Amino acid sequence: QVQLRDSGGGSVESGGSLRLSCEHSGITGRDTIYSMAWFRQAPGKEREGVAGIDSLSRTMYTDSVKGRFTISQDNNKNTLYLQMSGLEPEDTAMYYCAARIGAKRTLDPQFFNYWGQGTQVTVSS
User: Are 36 and 20 in contact (CB under 8 A)?
Assistant: First the structure.
């Protein structure tokens, strides 16, 4: 059974930093090919892929966060991270971690099967 639990959100001022964590189970294994990613959704907007990482630790980012956000994983701890720096008010959203089994590298939410409950990030100007 796959379970994801994300945490680490909060309120920061513009320019600040936060680190999101996603504890997971049932995803990683020695022979499992998977992808994990962070998504965000602001009120009235569609869910947007922010950053992704796969079982080979290859990463991908949406353009608006390149150079500011870093995705990483610690498979010994079964935890996915998103280090966010240089936060801007436009980054305000509910952030979700998600996972999928398979080799496709994508930040399209329709391809992800498993989701955390979300953690709120609010950036004030």
Answer: no
- Both tokens assigned to 14: 């513009």
Per-residue confidence band for 30, with pLDDT thresholds at 50, 70 and 90? low
Strands (E), 1-125: 3-7, 10-13, 18-25, 34-41, 48-54, 59-61, 69-74, 79-84, 93-101, 114-115, 119-124
HSE-CB of 63 using CA atoms within 13 angstroms: 0
- Short-list 8, 93, 111, 15, CA closest to 54: 111
Please give the Cα distance from 86 to 122 (Å, whole number): 13
pLDDT tens-digit map of 64-119: 999 999 999 998 999 999 999 999 999 999 999 999 998 888 999 999 999 999 99
Cα angle: 95, vertex 101, 102; to 5 degrees: 120
What is the spatial distance between Cα 104 and Cα 54, in angstroms, rounded to a whole number?
9
